[in-house]
Amino acid sequence: LALALAKNGHKTILVDMDFRKPSLNKIFELKTNTSLNNAIEGKSHWKSQVVTLDHPGLDLLPCQQDLNNSENLTGSNRLKAIVEELKSNYHGIEFLSIGITMTIGEYAIVDKLATFLTNHPEINIHLHYGNTSQLLNLLDNGQISMAIVEGNYPKEKYAHKKYSTENYIAVCAASHKFTIDHPHVINDLVCERLLVREDGSGTRNILEQSLIARGLRISDFIHYIEVENMHTIIGLLKKDCGISFLYKIAVENELKSGILKEISLDDFKMQHDFDIIWEKHSIYTDKYLSICEEFI
């Protein structure tokens, strides 16, 4: 079938994924050490493991026998990513999987993503939404290629490039009446109901770290509500159901229209970077850096 497709002018690759009993090397009498195994294990790019035949339009990607690790190889997320890239390369359509946090996805990426898609109509993109913790797990497991995160992460583990620097503020309804009149420091707000994101959220993590520096915790607020959706938090703020700490970019329209207001505090002036991150020492680093330049 592969030979027939190639003869009909279709760019074709035949991939051996039987790690228990590989057959391509035998069928085509190949004497090579190149293998799909190397690409899955991150030792080399899959393109360097492809064998070009005398048959025009037909390539091979053989594998090596690995009885002890065959299930892990077959079920690996790296193999799934390689298959998607093979489809892109041989169908002429590129695939890119990007993870983004809620705040970035809803308020900080749409215009730049639209420009990128206009410039690259050949690329199919899958956007994964999740909090910072979830995206790090997806990246570690090879389920996404890159992520744009808003929270803290172990920078020594990942390659990264700054996407933007954003103001992080305290906010409430314009008509909100504080329990302690004219609050000046965070400690003056612990009597308020706090609207906060869930564990693992970058927006929450920034607040937690700031509170710890002042000897406080989220549980020190008399009342707090955990919400897994930024739109809901903003909706509750507009209904004067509490206060919150979040990135200013998420509520810029509400601040400009006077529906919400920033709570100005003497001990709270903060900015934080949104970063684009990917696997450290990835063989795709040059590609990811090129993408970064377009998004930034």
Topology of this structure?
Layout: H1 2-7, E1 12-15, H2 24-27, H3 36-40, E2 51-52, E3 58-61, H4 70-74, H5 77-91, E4 94-100, H6 102-107, H7 110-119, E5 123-129, H8 132-140, E6 146-149, E7 158-173, E8 193-196, H9 202-213, E9 223-226, H10 230-238, E10 243-247, H11 252-257, E11 260-262, E12 270-279, H12 285-295
Parallel strand pairs: 1-3, 4-5, 4-6, 8-9, 8-10
Antiparallel strand pairs: 2-3, 6-12, 7-10, 7-11, 7-12
Q: Which properties best describe this structure?
A:
alpha/beta, 9-stranded mixed β-sheet, 3-stranded mixed β-sheet, 296 residues, 12 strands, 12 helices
Number-wise, the strands total 12
What is the helix fraction of residues, given as a range?
Answer: 25-40%
C-alpha Rg, in Å?
A: 25 Å
Query: Kindly, what is the distance between the CA atoms of the first and last residues, rounded to a whole number of angstroms?
Result: 45 Å
Strand content: 15-25%
